[in-house]
Write a structure and sequence with these properties.
Shape: elongated
Structural class: mainly alpha
Strand order of the largest sheet: 1-2
Distance between the termini: 13 Å
Keywords: DNA-binding, Transcription, Transcription regulation
Oligomer: single chain
Order of helices and strands: HHHEEHHHHEHHE
Number of strands: 4
Strand content: 5-15%
Domain HTH gntR-type: 2-69
Radius of gyration: 19 Å
Protein name: GntR family transcriptional regulator
Largest sheet: 2 strands, antiparallel
């Protein structure tokens, strides 16, 4: 069975983001093909895609290597997200469906319930799901793709601390959903911009100690579609 290059790309990207491939380390087609249980062709295509996304760079005499972004490049990502997420919220106010609203409201209820019960273990994943759904509600494929790529790269470069006031964070999520539900694009944009500005104080640049050193090998059966 031929595994699509897109699936191989996702698997390599996930491992880069998780820190399994150190920044600056070589990514050889032969080793990657053996790791993911595929031929070298989809690996080659995947590396080209990852280079266009900024996760991989090609060096003379070394070939493909994991990129080594600077602190300024990392800061730029947060600034871009702070500009694009309010735009997504604004468009969501005009383009959201009832299905989007149902998911967004459900996530807010789940998040607030976890806080009341002092069960904050999955608040971060719920928050990611919330922002992904809000982006989807914008109805803009290009914007959704940009925000998705930004989320991957920010997760690669930053550690996110738990907010000191999680109840306020989820109250802000709820207010954004209310504005989106009313079709108030300007208020949705304003609330999302304020939320992003406050949230970024929890972001800390990753250092060498944040890099994982081992994980089970990924085989063909585990490559996600």
């Amino acid at each position: 069975m031929r595994i699509p290059a897109q699936s191989v790309c996702t698997a390599i990207r996930d491992d880069i983001v998780a820190g399994l491939f150190a920044r600056g380390s070589r990514l050889t087609e032969e080793v990657l093909a053996r790791r993911y249980g595929v031929s070298r062709v989809p690996v080659r295509e995947a590396l080209r895609t990852l280079e266009s996304e900024g996760f991989v760079t090609t060096r003379r005499h070394a070939g493909a290597c994991v990129a080594e972004p600077t602190e300024q490049e990392a800061a730029d990502l947060l600034e871009l997200r702070a500009l694009l997420e309010p735009l997504a919220a604004s468009r969501a106010a005009a383009r959201r469906t009832e299905a989007h609203l149902k998911v967004l409201r459900g996530l807010v209820r789940l998040g607030q319930d976890r806080i009341r019960r002092a069960q904050g273990e999955d608040l971060r994943s719920l928050g990611v799901w919330f922002h992904e759904t809000l982006a989807q509600a914008s109805g803009s494929p290009g914007l959704i793709a940009l925000l998705t790529q930004l989320r991957h790269k920010i997760a690669w470069m930053y550690v996110v601390e738990q907010p000191t006031l999680p109840a306020e964070c989820w109250a802000e999520h709820g207010a954004i959903v209310d504005a989106v539900a009313r079709g108030d694009a300007e208020r949705a944009r304003s609330l999302a911009a304020r939320h992003a500005e406050r949230a970024f104080s929890a972001y800390r640049l990753r250092g060498p100690v944040d890099v994982r050193t081992s994980q089970h090998a990924v085989n063909t059966a585990s490559v996600r579609a």
